[in-house]
Design a protein that fits this description.
about 325 residues; alpha/beta; 8 strands; 2-enoyl-CoA Hydratase, Chain A, domain 1
Length: about 325
């Protein structure tokens, strides 16, 4: 069935396809089923190639999108998870460990949300606390020591804003990771796979290559949070999403991300296997490129990459202003 309002045009096709699928062995019905599925794919491709930023946000938050441990299982072998920050506790909202990628030892770090309510509570809905970021940095330093590339998977609404996290230095832990990741002498490949929320995402996202799945988002704050600040009304989230430039295409133009990873038609939640293959192809290509660089060159290029972000040409600024002028009309 259609899940969102913008998928409403697909509802009838989905129902007809499901009905015909109940009659295997009937040549006429099978031919009609093939025709309907082709039409459904074409209509879905058309819809998903024209999503608004707010619609993209909804897709990025879909609970059936692959999470970090799904990527670990699909793309890596011999994964060994490490726990604890050696200062306070373990944080299940971030998973860290070492594994083999195409036979090469690597470090793997990622946010982990939960599927059911029990898992969501255990994983704190993918919102890390300071000990999660300190655990991640501990693993990164080990990776640097043994010259192992680091691969991260970003998917979090943001860092946990609770009192206990603030008491243990949430802001300091994030800031420390930003500084230390910027000068690690080993390749870092970042993949934004769902929500890239604020400093909670960036704390494991300072990399030599930053990739985004086609229907993921990456921003300094959620659209709801932005709307609450600017218009004192979270219901203006759709308007905020237009203004914030949170989609992969916008961020590629801004130079914030390096590559957009294609998703299956309809989103990653519909076809995990194709998503894994697409992500794997990008990581393999980038790993090969980065492996040829000396540590000094890696650090220098990473520094230049992030220093150059936000330097907009006049042509881009004029285009941006023109697009902002029609935001209110579209929402």
């Amino acid at each position: 069935m259609a899940e969102w309002d913008f998928e409403a045009p697909l509802k009838k096709l989905i129902e007809q396809s499901n009905e015909l699928a109940q009659y295997p062995g009937d040549p006429d019905k099978e031919r009609e089923l093939i025709r309907l599925r082709r039409e459904l794919e074409e209509r879905r491709r058309e819809i998903f190639s024209n999503l608004t930023p707010w619609q993209t946000t909804m897709v990025a938050r879909h609970p059936n999108r692959p999470y970090s441990l799904d990527y670990v299982q699909a793309l890596f072998t011999e994964f060994t998870e490490l726990h604890g920050d050696r200062r306070f506790a373990d944080d299940p909202a971030i998973v860290c460990g070492f594994a083999l990628y195409a036979g090469r030892p690597v470090a793997v770090i990622g946010h982990q949300k939960g599927r059911d309510m029990k898992q969501k509570i255990y994983r704190n809905f993918g919102c890390p606390k300071p000990e999660g970021y300190r655990k991640a940095l501990r693993v990164m330093r080990i990776a640097e020591k043994f010259r192992r590339p680091i691969i991260t998977f970003v998917d979090t609404p943001g860092a946990y804003p609770g009192i206990d996290a603030e008491e243990r230095g949430q802001a300091e832990a994030i800031a420390f990771n930003l500084r230390e990741m910027s000068r690690l002498r080993t390749p870092i490949i970042v993949n934004v796979t769902g929500e890239g929320g604020s400093g909670g995402a960036l704390a494991i996202a300072v990399g030599d290559r930053v990739n985004m799945l086609e229907h993921s988002i990456y921003s300094v704050i959620s659209p709801e949070g932005c709307a609450s600040i600017l218009w004192r009304d979270a219901r203006e989230a759709e308007r905020a999403a237009f203004a914030m430039k949170i989609t992969a295409n916008d961020l590629k133009r801004l130079g914030v991300v390096d590559e957009i990873v294609s998703e299956p038609v309809g989103g990653a939640h519909l076809d995990h296997e194709t998503t894994f293959r697409n992500v794997d192809a990008v990581i393999a290509k980038q790993m090969k490129t980065l492996a040829s660089l000396r540590p000094e060159a890696l650090v220098a290029e990473r520094y230049r990459k992030f220093r150059n972000m936000g330097r907009l040409g006049q042509e881009f600024i004029q285009e941006d202003v023109a697009s902002d002028a029609v935001i209110d009309e579209r929402v």
